[in-house]
């Protein structure tokens, strides 16, 4: 109490705790040589649920380990942060445990879906994740200064956008699997009549907050091809040549933009591959994975991992 009534309530106590100071989850051991911290809170956006990340870590690393950030797909509308797609769900150990065994830390984050917030909330979330990883790097044994970003489908789109909009030199490389890269020309790359840019119910419209034809500026802004500069990191672009959902031309467009800016992206159009690697043999799917791991090794200088 004061002479003038009750003391003002300390409103700062209503603020959420700083994710950088929260205790980390208790580690699980899903495979030999692997620690898993599942569901660490990395951000608490105003008006939204807390955002969490799974961290797959080598058990006995001798020093700070390179980081791969995996961004899940699901048409920006759905998806699970630790799901690489149906062709990998039977792997034992799974793809992220294998990366940890190879000496990488793997961060698999949630991000706000299009039903929760329109673009650019998703890339804002991934930027917050990268900042959180840098803040927690020492305690987790991470070399988080220059991570490799990797995403599949819509997650590849977000990984590419994030890699191209972070400060120069802070992303070591980016891998996209069958990702949309140019929302302004998606209709041109699909069969005639298959896509209506005026339709407010497409996945792209739900991401942008309106039909692409009505949100042309947002569609350009959300297209990785428009974000390429001379400072872009190395890219590995893998896309099924027979993809009927996201045409392979989308990855070609990003490769062309990167080349025009003086880069040498590694573009691989996989013969017989459809979306989610449907149509490929198990051996061909594993080759896509191995190519991705080898690229991460080169980008991070972890050739001996």
In short:
The chain has 305 residues and is of the alpha/beta class. It contains 8 helices and 9 strands.
| Parts with pLDDT < 50 across at least 5 consecutive residues | none
What percent of residues adopt helix (DSSP H or I)? 25-40%
User: How large, in whole angstroms, is the Cα Rg?
Assistant: 20 Å
Major sheet: 9 strands, mixed
Instruction: Give the N-terminus to C-terminus distance in angstroms.
Output: 63 Å
Question: In percent, how much strand structure appears in the residues?
Answer: 15-25%
Estimate the global geometry from the Cα principal axes: globular
Give, in spatial order, the strands making up the sheet with the most strands: 1-2-3-5-4-6-7-8-9
Q: Tell me, rounded to a whole number, the average pLDDT.
A: 96
For this structure, the quaternary state is: single chain
Determine the number of helices (DSSP H or I, runs of at least 4 residues): 8
Structural class: alpha/beta
The string of secondary-structure elements, in order, is EEEEHEHEHEHHHEHEH
What is the number of E strands? 9
């Amino acid at each position: 109490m004061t002479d003038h009534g009750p003391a003002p309530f300390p409103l700062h106590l209503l603020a959420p705790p700083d994710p950088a100071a929260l205790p980390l989850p208790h580690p699980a051991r899903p495979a030999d040589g692997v620690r898993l911290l599942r569901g660490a809170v990395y951000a608490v956006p105003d008006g939204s649920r807390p955002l969490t990340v799974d961290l797959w870590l080598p058990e006995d690393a001798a020093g700070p380990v390179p980081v791969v950030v995996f961004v899940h797909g699901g048409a920006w509308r759905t998806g699970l942060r630790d799901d690489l797609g149906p062709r990998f769900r039977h792997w034992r150990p799974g793809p992220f445990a294998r990366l940890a065994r190879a000496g990488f830390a793997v961060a698999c984050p949630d991000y706000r879906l299009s039903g929760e917030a329109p673009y650019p909330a998703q890339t804002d979330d991934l930027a917050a994740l990268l900042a959180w990883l840098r803040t927690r790097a020492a305690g987790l044994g991470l070399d988080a200064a220059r991570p490799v970003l990797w995403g599949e489908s819509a997650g590849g789109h977000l990984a590419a956008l994030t890699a191209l909009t972070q400060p120069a030199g802070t992303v070591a490389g980016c891998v996209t699997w069958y990702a949309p890269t140019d929302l302004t020309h998606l209709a041109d790359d699909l069969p005639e009549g298959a896509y209506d840019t005026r339709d407010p119910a497409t996945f792209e419209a739900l991401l942008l907050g309106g039909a692409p034809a009505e949100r042309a500026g947002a569609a350009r802004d959300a297209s990785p091809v428009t974000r390429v500069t001379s400072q872009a990191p190395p890219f590995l672009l893998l896309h099924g040549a027979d993809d009927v959902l996201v045409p392979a031309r989308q990855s070609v467009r990003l490769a062309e933009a990167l080349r025009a800016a003086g880069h040498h992206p590694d573009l691989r159009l996989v013969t017989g591959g459809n979306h989610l690697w449907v149509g490929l043999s198990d051996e061909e799917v594993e080759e896509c994975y191995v190519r991705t791991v080898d690229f991460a090794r080169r980008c991070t200088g972890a050739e001996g991992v």
